Amino acid sequence: MLQRASWFWMPACAGMTALVGCTQPAPPPAPETKAEAPKPVEYYGTNEPFAADAVYFVLTDRFVNGDKTNDHRDQGKGAALHTFDRPVPGAPKGKSDNVGYLGGDFRGLLDNAEYIKDLGFGAVWLTPIIDQPDEAFTGGDPVKWGGMWTDRGKTGYHGYWGVNFYKLDEHLPSKNLDFRGLTKGLKSHGLKTVLDIVQNHGSPAYTMPKDQPKYGEIYDKDGKLIADHMNLAPGKLDPSNPLNAFYNTKPGLAQLSDINENDPRVLPYFLGAYEQWIGQGADAFRIDTIPWMPHSYWHQFVTKIRDKHPGFFMFGEAFDYDANKIAEQTWPENAGVSVLDFPLQKAFGEAFGKPRAGFEAIDKALYLTNGPYANPYDLMTFYDNHDMARLDATDAGFIDANNALFTLRGIPVVYYGSETGFERGTAEHTGNRNYYGQDRIDAAADSPIYRQLRRIANLRAQTPALQRGLQVNVEMQGDHAAFYRVLQQGKSAQIALVLLNKGDAPAQFSVRASLQPGAWKSVFAGTAVNVAAGGTLDATVAPHDVAVYVLDAPVTEPALKTELDRAMSRARRHVAD
After folding, report:
1. 308 with 427, same domain?
2. Could you tell me the pTM of the whole model?
3. In a domain, 455, yes or no
4. How far, in Å, CA of 131 to CA of 169, rounded?
5. What is the pLDDT of residues 159-191, one digit of tens each?
6. Which domain holds residue 534?
7. Cβ neighbours of residue 59 under 8 Å, at least 6 residues apart?
């Protein structure tokens, strides 16, 4: 019975091949598998959120005096020491420059926040806000018209002579308007705050006939003296003295106190100071003189800041026209930050200033593929600033420069006053940093440069492809440029075609290369151009003008796809694991 019972327990037909009529059960049907739809190919230049915001750069003391009660006109006793209004000697008739404070402050900046926003900017970069010496400097060589590295008679109006990096300079805030209030006020106008930070050096430190208060000194957040150069030349500093050890024993820039990054107190000091200003609303940092301290120092600083503030945007000033040198700052194994694009700045001066070189000069400096940068689309692009001669161009040259700046790859930066051609062609100590003032702001709309800048800057602010899109050039020759900016990522699918004419005559463009069929919107004309497959887009661009056509659609044109695939794979520097 046990044997019989065990026969009944066997699965149907198992080992019973001789049993008539026994069949195997049909296997269960395989589940239907649906082929996954291929993910759309992504095309983008950068994913950096800050790329949406063009930057207006103000030297705060020279922008607008909104509050005269913080001018401190009586600061520094006597002709050699007073700090307010110190004209540079030797100025030609009708010209001026000044190395004293002239009154610009947070109030003047905030009062004009809507002016900056309306002009098309999304961020304001302001010069360092930290405490400066309270007298004019008596060491070094005397300031003179057109002089370089001459600081005698100069004050810290510019903010780069830090004494206490935790304390606001008294010339900037007003009653009920400190730095926190400024950043909050700017945000209410839709503007981010870029804070200029310094760690390479403090104030001038030696060559004074008599040691001056604060010069060559650094104080902590409690007001305690932690470093003192003691008016000694760098080679005479005593590294065993903690007050001297904060500084290097080799000279740096001019007579500035050169900070010793190897002193273990230095990094914590600056991390604490700049964390404080982030806590009060700074949205990004511009890092002054970044190459003067080693990559290892900046890697530590940037890493620690981003550990607490993931993705915090920073860009450095590496004043060098060699792309391979400045690119090192962008690599993740070094600082891993963006940089100001000095090679492109030089090309802008050649193309839009008096030389009037062709767009070939611009093309060579873009490094769209196989370049040295971690990502060229993250670079800060500009044509002048406070440390060099302003762009020496006609009104038409400024208009051309702005049309290119706000459509080419990169994040645009415009120095205060350039919207009206203010002090064009002037260098430091010949007018580059002169006072702008409310009257000029109120009259800015009369300038053709202002009107055209406002038009192109606001277009960029409204066009994602111009902010973050991959760039593919069609033509960069002579006075004419044509290129695509393409953004295809997530819910964004936009192709922009930019046509630039910096010539004195109307330019005829007939674009066929990689042109996708569709209804292209001419954004300035407000009309549409229907392009058939294999067709052309024909346009006439007025002298010193720009035309932008936008197609809100995914990329389907095979030739454009090929160009974009190539650009996408070769745009960014790939770092080996």
Report:
1. yes
2. 0.93
3. yes
4. 4
5. 999 999 999 999 999 999 999 999 999 999 999
6. 470-569
7. 104, 127, 158, 386, 416, 433
